[in-house]
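Record format v2
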Amino acid sequence: MDDQEQYARLFNDIDSQALVALGVILVSTVLLIIVSQRGLNWLANRLHGQLRFRVFALVPLTRLLILVVALAIAIPIVIEPSLRNMVTLLGALGLAIGFALKDYVSSLIAGVVSAVELPYRPGDWVNIEGTYGEVKHVGMRTVEIQTPDDDLVSVPHLKLWDSAIYNANNGGISLQCVASFYLHPEHEAGWVRKVLRDVALTSAYLKFDKPIIVVAEEKPWGTHYRIRAYPVDPRQQFLFTTDLTVRGKQMLNAAGVTPALLPPSTALDLQSSTSQ
Amino acid sequence: MLPLITFIILRPAMSKRSTKAALSPWEVVALESFQTPEQTQISQWRRSWRVVTAWMVGKESSERQAKQESELRALPEVKLAHWAPAIDWLPTANALNNVMKEYRDAPVVLFISPPHGGHASVVSLWAQQQGVNCLPMPTFAELTDGSLEWVERCGHQRYWAIPSLERHFLRHTQGLQGVRELLERALSGRLGQGVIGCDSWTYAYLQHAVGLEGVPVLTLQGLEGKQLAHYFADLARDGKCPPVYSTRTGKLILANGSDESTSGKNDDVHKELQRLAAHCRGHLGIAWHYWRERLREPAERCNTDEQPQEELWLLDALAEAELPADTGDVATLLLHALLIHGGLEDQALGHVLPFSHHEALSARLALARQGILDCHQGRWQVSPLSYASVRQLLESRHYLVDSL
């Protein structure tokens, strides 16, 4: 009988007025979240450069803010927000979560952390456990990544706790691209280096305030050249790499520089070492 | 007593001369000293705001005008030739010659100007004045083949000139060798002493692609509204331009003739031309195109028998052909390529753009239809009235832009 009275004191009397208020809060919260998320996404997609990323970064933060405000209004309607009541409620919730909804809640908490720490935000190009693509949406529980093959991959935020997150542009507009050339060892390396630099310099996608670096690395099968350069917009990365590759090959072929042809065994070894 | 009287008599004349010098649009300065006119930033915000309001309330509603365009008509070619004849670049060539005396030891001096800024005319006139030879231009085939024969043809001369460096390269893997070799010879003094005219966008690109550190670079100083008013007032062939009113405000923006007592009496008169100067980033060539293409006269004059007082109207400077905010990558890349090369022929588009010739051509056609591009001597270039909005778009998308 005493327990019942204690529980009754924990929760306020939920009359019809309280139910209406909770309903209004719920509907308003959902509506506000939908409008803010769609509105900010719509706006960001029409912007370019740094401003685009700043608006995108506001998407999860705005949602978090709306939720916190909604909870701050709703909780006093349901319970008497005394210290004793809060400890009792949070203890009961912690027990339930610890047994049944551990991963789900872990993802939700990681979602809050991601909104504050910003390891990724919409518009970023990230690699999480081998999934590479553009972050399209940072939700409460998952982050949605669109891969270059147009697959939409939902990755739970809880990966944040124990996985490395590779962010190629980190909320900025500079994203390094690499175009590789595998050449037969017999060639004039200085000339190749100069030509590959010119290939980058004459690309229409090139971002000029970032450096162009041509890296040469000697391998048992030949020489591996890499052009490291930045496109004007991260979204142009595949077009940029393709442009560098196509025009680089054209120049090298015209000059009679032959590509390195690997024997099948070496190729297989290389493949396995790359996948590892 | 005599010195005092002389002073009193001479003072107004001296002051008039110094005002005239201050109002001269032909000040050649080092690139580091170039300044855009006052309100240039405000002009850019205004342009952005206009795009937003046009999108929200429609283009017609966002442009409230004191005088409707339908009440006006374009000026016939004869009147335009009289009131807005082509810019005579000879004073700039003279100013360039004066400033160049400070660079006697430099093997090369660059004179840069934005598109439609007249650098080719200025350097050609300078070369003509000084009896200096202009170096030959490469052919299109030589640029695409990477041939250096045209550089070999440029032998050593005591003085030489290149009116438009943008015709000496192509943003193509083979198209940089020639200009690199030429500039290497020129900068080392092996060609003699020379003056190179160059588009400001080409200069920005070649700074990265070739490297032009330490070369003296000169340009025309940006004009303020007052200087524009003075220039336009004196532009008419008989020196008497009718009063010009703004269609946006309905107010006088250029008083009759070059009478300084009238045109200088009220600074408000220059506000509209300051707006134009800011919109054009102080570039005379572009401002002149606005002046010429946006001057109107009342339409009903032809129906009346009496001779009314001549008056002209200037349409709003911001109401030019504009790029939509959602302009795609193909159009943006094409515009950037055209600016870097100071205009291109159709056959060159496929060589400098990362898409097929057909795609490049259809993008070019679409932009030409919108009035963003125009054709000059077979080369497609960004039209003067669209230049400001194109530059702003490219800058907002982080493309390489010029420093002027």
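Residues 177-275 of chain A form a domain with the Alpha-Beta Plaits fold (CATH 3.30.70.100).
Chain A has three domains: 2-117, 125-167, 177-275.
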